[in-house]
Specification:
Helix content is 59%, strand content 6%. With 102 residues, the protein is mostly helical. It has a single domain, classed as Rossmann fold. The protein has a two-stranded parallel sheet with strand order 1-2. Helix 2 packs antiparallel against helix 3.
């Protein structure tokens, strides 16, 4: 809200569908999450609270409902949101390239 009070309008850009070239990276991330889930389950069995916390941090996911709630909250705050067709970073670069954002 401070940014808005100074006349600065932040724009939240959300990722769209990832490009196909990112499939390999997404598969690696999924494998790491699957591994973290297995380690977490074993840590629960072993009652290893420290390892549970460490693995739990790796298992955080943002649901569509959470994303929609965030968009609604930003809308209520007067902060514009954009759903990028693909990567949010690429969309931000386009906005900057065309002088629409800085």
């Amino acid at each position: 809200n401070k940014l808005l009070s100074f006349g600065i309008t932040p724009v939240w850009v959300f990722d769209g569908k990832p490009p196909e070239m990112k499939d390999f990276e997404l598969d690696k991330r999924k494998a790491r999450k699957d591994y973290a889930s297995e380690v977490f389950d074993q840590a629960v069995t072993d009652e290893d609270v420290e390892l549970q916390q460490k693995m739990n941090n790796r298992l955080v996911r943002v649901s569509n409902q959470q994303k929609n709630d965030a968009i609604r909250m930003l809308d209520l705050m007067g902060v514009p949101t954009v759903q990028a067709p693909s990567e949010a970073e690429a969309q931000c670069a386009e906005f900057t390239k065309h002088g629409l954002a800085y």
